[in-house]
Amino acid sequence: MREAKARRTCASCARSAFWSANEANTSTGGTAAPFAEADFIRRLMAAASRHALVAYAFDPATWDSRTNAVAGWRYDAGGWRRETVEAPFLLYDRLWPDGRESRDRSLAALRTMRQSGGFRLLNGSLPGKTAVLRTLSRCPEIRPLLPPSAAYRGIASLVSWIEARGGSAFLKPSDGSQGKGALAIEAPPGGRWTLSGRNAAGGLVRARGFPRREALREIRAWIGRRPYLMQPLLALRGPDGEPFDLRALMQKDGGGVWRMTGIAVRTGTPESVTANLHGGGVARPPGPYLAGLFGEQTAAGLLERIREASDSIVARLEHLYGRFAELGLDYGIDREGRVWFLEANTKPGRASMAEAGDAAMSDAIHNPLAYARYILLVSSGRVCHEFDLVQRSLHAAGGEGHMAVQPARQNAEN
């Protein structure tokens, strides 16, 4: 027997949009969650002890460099309790700030922690969608999966794109997420242009027709000064006209090896241009849904194609942009059964994994913790034995949320 002391880690940061209210609330009694993804964070906290970790949520703006402490949140006795805790060594960034000001403040606080305090992030980051697709296009086995793409460089570039693509286009922010800011354009020659999408807050903007000149003014105002990506308006809709895509969750396990945690279909409402769950989409098991569209044999082949593509994509992204703990990969399948890779996400949610099976939901919770313990042990120079690594078969309930972790002492028998 020997004592294995795991180093402290933090799995995530509280949603900065709630920071001001949190700072004003000094009560130690149970409260409602002061951040997004609360259920996910609560489940991470509950599972952390199995990995010799202690989990808590915090806002990076609360870090005190003099005492190396943060205002942490823990779930206890049916409510969230705030307490001062020592800052963790490893940060699992689940920040979801509301608005540019909140986003800038949160990123600045996180940057200060990393630069001044030497803290490390569990997961890596990606540049904008345009840069990611450009670099992936240089990989021969991935290139056939990529839809034609180009950076928006003004209205003239959009008009040329639409004319070259049969009178339609799909635009999305290069640095966006959750379907916010997406815009579908249908522009038949000589006819009225139809615009529909999701506004900057994620709200549904129903299809509306405009004369060409007025439509261009609307598009210019919609985009503003934000960098956008132009793509074809692919036929990614189901039998009832609903938009659908597939989310593949790739995560590293307790041995630092990439694993496919699960795949789920996400469907939106017919009037929507996206299938994101944050925009009102619904997750479904992938097998039955795809079998209804393409038949069982073809559906099985499509899922295998996505598994193979996901292995190649995460390997390539990690080679290009550094170490990652997890990535959410989004795919579309058009009416001809062609698979398209749409984008990669460094902060994948967990809600859709409930439709990928109980094992997938459990792994989605446990894998970040197991991998955090793995890299802490490796970075400390400690030799890892099989008893140091928690079995991936441990099951926990699923969910979606925010958290933070910090290792505790654990006895391990070698």
UniProtKB/TrEMBL annotation:
A Pfam family hit: ATPgrasp_YheCD
Database matches in SUPFAM superfamilies: Glutathione synthetase ATP-binding domain-like (SSF56059)
Designated name of the protein: YheC/YheD family protein
